[in-house]
Write a structure and sequence with these properties.
2 copies of one chain form a homodimer. By secondary structure, chain A is mainly alpha-helical. Chain A is built from 10 helices and 3 strands. Chain A folds into 2 domains: about 60 residues, Winged helix-like DNA-binding domain superfamily/Winged helix DNA-binding domain (Arc Repressor Mutant, subunit A), CATH 1.10.10.10; about 140 residues, GntR ligand-binding domain-like (Four Helix Bundle (Hemerythrin (Met), subunit A), Up-down Bundle). In chain A, helix 4 runs antiparallel to helix 10 and helix 6 runs antiparallel to helix 8. The longest helix of chain A has 27 residues. Chain A is globular. At the A-B interface, helix 3, helix 4 and helix 7 of A face helix 3, helix 4 and helix 7 of B. Chain B binds a DNA duplex through helix 3.
Chain lengths: ~230, ~230
DNA sequence: ATGGATCAAATCCGATCGGATATCTGATTG
DNA sequence: CAATCAGATATCCGATCGGATTTGATCCAT
């Protein structure tokens, strides 16, 4: 309900505080609704509803939806309208992991070389946050887990020094898709162990180890989710 | 100049031809102007101009520009306006090639496994088209070369069967950037040889060879462009 | 008095809005 | 069961609002 204005998208060295774009707020509001599953996968998103709900005109809403579409989080059908991206299926999940497997280990290796010390510190903070997550409430716990996991990987992608790689991985919105699929799951401590290995390798400035650790992490993550998938299907 | 309505973006199995979106036409028009360098890199793009020039309202123009921005071909500065993406610099070019190097060889290998026969036929057509290009006019020749080269790689990415990989590579608009950088160059026949190796490997359904050939091709292409870059600077 | 800097009005242009039009959907009727 | 009608929704438009840029006039320092 409360829309987070803070988007982690722009580097925002912001020496100059420009007036907020209305579209940004709308973007955040819709993004939250997608994350919180208030808008279910495949659910229709009517512009008119948002006009009433958010009290702004169509223009900023269309602008925000346009961006979300570009990110693959909503889909637009001509003369039909917008809807939330459909639930990711098995094939989509495999494609997602295939692509991550190609890019993220490289990113981790580069990050081990190039990442500034303060970014590594942030990484440690995120990592320790994830360990704090105890299951008071399974759902909200997993939500925070997914959020942190996303931030962890995003920071490493950023640390690769390759903006295109960072954008590419950000565009996948891995944590959103996985969360929407498995929000009923509990956070696993396996991921914590794997993250620790990656973190240590980066701290030691050991690219090879970072690459291997990342590859291992993604591979294991894939197996966890795949097992889950086949469990459901029968 | 003539704007093709047909965008190669959507898979377009198009069972139903819906009325054309005005935004699509605008998209094509601007895209052409970027490709033809009528709008130079970094050049301002005023909405009002396009309103007069194309005879449509602001809305479809904003919609088109929004999409172009998502694709990274134009940049938007809040309360300032739109402008064409700036000339790619050396660092950007390296990032571009680093990413391609990670993804495209894999895509080629997958394509060798999965690509349907008729797609391979299209690939051959494009390949032979590229050989036909003789330098009547250096610039238009290179333009056609860049176009075909883009289509060649796009088709292979599509043939990988991984939509995310296809989107990722399409989003880079490699041929646009390279063309805008080197439109004064002449098409090289080296690329033709390298393409031939890739094509043969795919036809033979040999994933390993396709992967190697693609890796080799990108590596050589990178060297060609890098040499050119340092020639200019030095 | 001249050169440079500062401030303010005027103009330009994007951001936002509300409304008009065309299309799709599904419900009703012959 | 087909055709039609009504409701809903997206597309597109023209206009207004507000921030940004430019111009030029004024003021200070040399």
């Amino acid at each position: 309900m409360t829309n987070r204005t803070g988007e982690l998208k722009h580097s925002d060295t912001g020496l100059l505080r420009r007036p907020t774009r209305l579209g940004d707020e709308v973007y955040g509001a819709i993004y939250s609704q997608l994350m919180s599953l208030k808008i279910p996968p495949g659910g229709r998103i009517a512009v008119d509803n948002l006009v009433r709900e958010l009290g702004v005109s169509q223009t900023p809403i269309r602008e925000a939806l346009s961006r979300l579409e570009a990110q693959g989080l909503v889909v637009k059908t001509h003369l039909i309208g917008y809807s939330a991206a459909p639930q990711m299926d098995l094939s989509g999940l495999e494609q997602l992991y295939d692509l991550r497997m190609l890019v993220e280990p490289f990113a981790a290796a580069q990050a081990a070389k190039l990442m500034p010390e303060e970014a590594i510190a942030s990484l440690e903070t995120i990592d320790s946050d994830m360990r704090q997550v105890r299951d008071e409430d399974a759902r909200s716990a997993y939500s925070r887990f997914a959020q942190s996991d996303g931030a962890f990987h995003d920071l490493i992608a950023l640390g690769s020094g390759n903006g295109l790689i960072h954008d590419t991985l950000a565009r996948l919105h891995t944590h959103v898709h996985l969360f929407r699929l498995y929000f009923h799951t509990r956070a696993t401590s396996d991921a914590n162990r794997e993250h620790a290995r990656i973190l240590v390798a980066i701290k030691n400035r050991n690219p090879k180890a970072a690459e291997t650790a990342m590859r291992d992490h993604i591979e294991r993550s894939r197996k966890r989710f795949m097992r889950f998938f086949t469990d459901i299907q029968g």
